[in-house]
């Protein structure tokens, strides 16, 4: 089947490995979808022959080993390999030469921090990246500092030691729509006063160690939020009046902080606040 362009074995629960005769001869393959199966083992080195491959979906199998066989897939735009046992450096170094890459979903794999800082600049500019549930990696990956077209970022449940809220990520990516930073071991005050107005719609910084007041200017700096979750931190003081000016806000979770005072009058008209919004935070209504 040398002319095959799309191969889908989605939800077939097939066994075995991809290291089989003939597989890497599918050099015209553009889409490979083998997900929700029982495939094991490493990616074969001959994977590099699939230079026409644009979309690779291998999620929810039992693959292991490194991702270096992907380093020559110059046509690759979308990489979706979550819920496996791949060993992936937080730098994403093996993918740096894939200039067409736009979407990377590698959640719930073995993401590790390299002993030496990766100094190279990636050739890709991503649209979306998801690295959630990947353990302790030290600091924000350096490649993120070189991204300027991100729209969706999920780094939840990765532990970044002693890092603060990444204002630079919002400033560098003016089209950013979704940012999930839940349970990242982030800390310090939530500094927004240097931030220019952003039109992000979903922000989750729950289960971190932020402290101090919720920024008074949060409603002005992030006016387009429809979802805001800052629960499970150590914020003190009252709810900023500017939150009431978030006209698109549908879900707001401030629970499990150390807030006090009264609910701002503007907040009475805020649509569909979460039921647990005021649990255990000592507010008067």
Give a structural overview.
This protein is mainly β and 285 residues long. The protein is built from two helices and 24 strands. An eleven-stranded parallel beta sheet has the order 1-3-5-7-9-11-13-15-17-19-21, with no helix packed on it. It has helices at residues 167-172, 218-221; strands at 6-8, 15-16, 31-33, 38-41, 55-57, 62-66, 78-80, 85-89, 103-105, 110-112, 128-130, 135-138, 152-154, 158-160, 178-180, 187-189, 202-204, 209-213, 227-229, 234-237, 251-253, 258-259, 261-262, 283-284. It starts with 5 loop residues before the first strand and ends with a strand.
Short description:
With 285 residues, this protein is mostly beta strands.
Largest sheet: 11 strands, parallel
Radius of gyration (CA) equals 22 Å
Head-to-tail CA distance between termini: 69 Å
The parts where pLDDT drops under 50 for at least 5 residues are: 270-276, 278-285
Strand order of the largest sheet: 1-3-5-7-9-11-13-15-17-19-21
Order of helices and strands: EEEEEEEEEEEEEEHEEEEHEEEEEE
Class derived from helix and strand content: mainly beta
Overall geometry: elongated
What helical percentage do the residues reach?
under 10%
What's the number of helices? 2
Mean pLDDT: 89
Q: Strand share of the residues?
A: 25-35%
What is the number of E strands?
Answer: 24
